[in-house]
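ESCALATION

Customer reports they have been waiting on this structure for their group meeting. Please prioritize. Original submission:
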Amino acid sequence: MRTFTGDTLLVATHNAGKLEEIIHLLKPLGISVQSAKDHGLPEPEETGTTFVENARIKAHAAASATGLPALADDSGIQVDALDGAPGVYTADWAETPTGRDFHMAMRKTHEAIAATGLAAPHTARFCATLVLAWPDGHDEVFAGTVEGQVVWPMRGAEGHGYDPVFQPDGYDITFGEMDWEEKNRISHRADAFNKLVSALGRR
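Update from on-call: job pushed to the front of the queue and completed.
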């Protein structure tokens, strides 16, 4: 496995909530973060059909454009009652002509689950795939998950995306009700980051 030994990493995302979460996870490792926005990078079209394909598209586009190692994440929620949807299309379910509306996406997901007629609990999982790419085309892949269930109505104003409707196993609160420290200890992204740490030369 190739190791990253620098102290600054480009994070290839335009999602402010995701960027904040990644900065929080990298800070204890002594790694500072530059964002895609800092470099004026456009968002590449995510044409992949899996989390790893889309993360690779974003990471390699950023590394190629800047000449810097770049970290990209692709993540989403898989609902068993919906045969794994929205999955890799999680963000697409939130798209509107004026930007992403995750409150709308959560309502859409709830309505789709209700239409199945299946009784609760509605098991689900958050998935995150991180790709660390270098300008020479090499990359390393790290995947993480957290199991739980989709609940309704939405609860909590913390986090981002689908956090207010996802209740992780072993808890009676949603990610939207959980403080940053606790969420970043157990989340899908934290699981992937725990696997990434060795590649950052910090073990």
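Sent to customer with the following note: The chain has a mean pLDDT of 93.
Escalation resolved.
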